[in-house]
Amino acid sequence: MHSARALFHGLSQSRLGGSRHRLRAAGCVAAMLGALACSAAAAAPAGATTLCTGQQNETFAPGLTNTTQTTTFTATRTLSTCLSLADPTITSGSASTTINAPFNCQSVLANGSSTSTIHWSNGQTSTFSFTYTATTVNGTDQTQETGTITAGEFTGRSAIGLVTVPALDPLACATSTGVTSLTGLFTLTIL
Q1: pTM of the model
Q2: Residue 53 in contact with residue 30, Cβ under 8 Å?
Q3: Which of 57, 110, 120, 147 is deepest in the core (most CB within 10 A)?
Q4: Tell me: the pLDDT tens digits for 72-83?
């Protein structure tokens, strides 16, 4: 673990003139330890202080159909692995976000804003206030969240969340039950 932290330290030094390959090396070592996917770390911005990967479970009540209706969207996030230069006591976390709005299968991918409270493994919390932009790329729905930690640990730091879930099934959208849940990947970078 010590050598992984030493390489992860190289990640923070990359903004001081180090080469981009330090970023990739840090990500790959972390992946070998089960910490991060190599591609997620390679895409992390230089100067990142905390990187987390995990899963996002989404529920829609009522289910998303082709008809617009007020829907409660709940995203539950499990940050199963975190590496933090800013606070090494953080190894994992969890968060949830709920949005009530008119949605249908075509409009669920939209732009908006929300707030999520992250509960860290060290007992601390962070409030992440963000705007989100969603797109469909190669059969997946990708949502980028860009914002700031507005309270708790890391207050004042910028943060970026990336959600990747399978695209909505058009056959399920055509039923009366609709799409009631999705599961995908979530990555959080705190700068």
Answers
A1: 0.72
A2: no
A3: 120
A4: 999 999 999 999
